[in-house]
Amino acid sequence: MLHLAIIGSGPAGYYTAEAALKRWGEEVHVDIFDLQPVPFGLIRSGVAPDHQSIKGVAKRYDAVAQAPNVRFIGKVAVGRDVSIAELQELYDAVVLATGAPSDRALGIPGEDLGNVFGSAAFVGWYNGHPHFADLAPDFAGAHAVVIGNGNVALDIARILAKVPQEFEGADIVAHALDALKGSGIASVTILGRRGPHQIAMTPKELGELGSLERARPRVDPADLPPEVEDAALDPGMRKSIQHLRAFAADTPSDKPFTIDFDFFAAPRALIGDGSVRKVEVERTALVEGRAVGTGETYQVPADLVIAAIGYRTNPIEGVPYDTAAGRFANEEGRILPGLYCVGWARRGPSGTIGTNRPDGFAIVDRIAEDFPAPGNKQGRVGFEALATARGVDFVTFRDWRKIDEAEVARARDGAPREKFVAFDQMLAAAGKH
Ligand code: NAP
Fold first, then answer.
1. H or E stretch including 144?
2. Averaged over 158-164, what is the pLDDT?
């Protein structure tokens, strides 16, 4: 029997479990740990609440979770409740699938002003992640600035721009929907430090901005490169640029909410009086693909600023970490003997949910190469003994089922669920306290 511990129950974690089942069948025991009492990581807390079709992939993870030799162990903080060294004593292989849950810092003056958030915090807030439920962004002002030209920046701009009816069928949490209903925000500026050909936005997500009820995206035609240059782009990027060209050609409309793409615009400082009021921006030019400041500066009004500039993996004591890259130090997923990483914790926050599937299968290949014959580890029996001795009261997949049912039962009309946003609410729903 091979005993496998996977830390993190998001896409990378469940795809790794699926790959382990495919390879070893009944010859493997998989324990999937999570910090939260609920599974599925980014699917629950990262994917936009109005993108329910993407969340449908959780059904696949559900099927993996049903296997008798796969177990969910929720509400266990690896590094606090149990150390990596202890897990390595108990399991043949420990795979860190912990994602990249923390914000990268902008590193500019004014970052500590009020109403300035990183996208992990802001997205976590509207998705009901317990760590960010108390974020309380202030929507009293009229102008929001979103920094970054990736899909997360698009998600945030879209959520800020939607009217309540456009959240029908979404699992946005009540505290966020209520706050957005009273929002005074009437413009979002999306700052990109490079140009239209350097965006990291995919066509479907970009296209959605073109059909919002009260909002219209605007692009300055002068920012767009000559159309002939689009031919050199890969097909996906070419489609994205077509959307930007359509936004630039759009005739004026009476939609009152504007989403302005400001390209070649690098934020240099956030300015305010306790709370943020403006962003100081430097115009850039592309030099060998890099954004280089031109010295020309201007200010953009900003009562709310969200930096959507990428994420970092949280370090764990005793695990080698690549500070510059913001993820675990690894060679093709190998960190130390018996210790591996997968998904965003391995390669950084890139790709789609599906990118994690080949990643999961690849790490299982590595483990198989390293462990031609399993050892005599205790696996889950040993963990249970340790948890009992230490008073660690973990959550099982059966407990999650109860939480799931309770969330579905309390959903507002048309919504798939109303998430619990605090651990004690989740535990109460599971009948644990
Ligand atoms: P991302 O795709 O890496 O985009 C980050 C953006 O931030 C880039 O435009 C980058 O510009 C910019 N940036 C970085 N540092 C900056 C700085 N100091 N100042 C100004 N701009 C800065 O990251 P993401 O949007 O967080 O997305 C993470 C991953 O999740 C991506 O793979 C994304 O596709 C995926 N995702 C997918 C969906 C979907 O499919 N619906 C939704 C959300 C997220 P440079 O290019 O110049 O570095």
1. strand 143-147
2. 98
End-to-end CA distance of the chain: 35
- pLDDT band at residue 373 under the 50/70/90 scheme: confident
**pLDDT score at 253:** 82
What is the distance in A from the centroid of ligand 1 to the CA of 196?
14
* Beta-carbon count within 10 A of 167 CB: 21
CB of 150 within 6 A of ligand 1: the answer is yes
From ligand 1's centre to the CA of 311, what distance in Å? 9
Q: What Rg value do the Cα atoms of the chain yield, rounded?
A: 23
C-alpha dihedral over 348, 99, 321, 153, to 10 degrees?
50
Averaged pLDDT for residues 288-297:
97
Q: Which of 277, 306, 280, 281 is nearest to 291 (CA)?
A: 281
Partnered with residue 3 across adjacent β-strands are 29
Rounded to an integer, what distance in angstroms lies between the CA atom of residue 66 and that of residue 75?
Answer: 19
Confidence of residue 399 (pLDDT cuts 50, 70, 90): very high
308 lines ligand 1 (CB under 6 A): yes
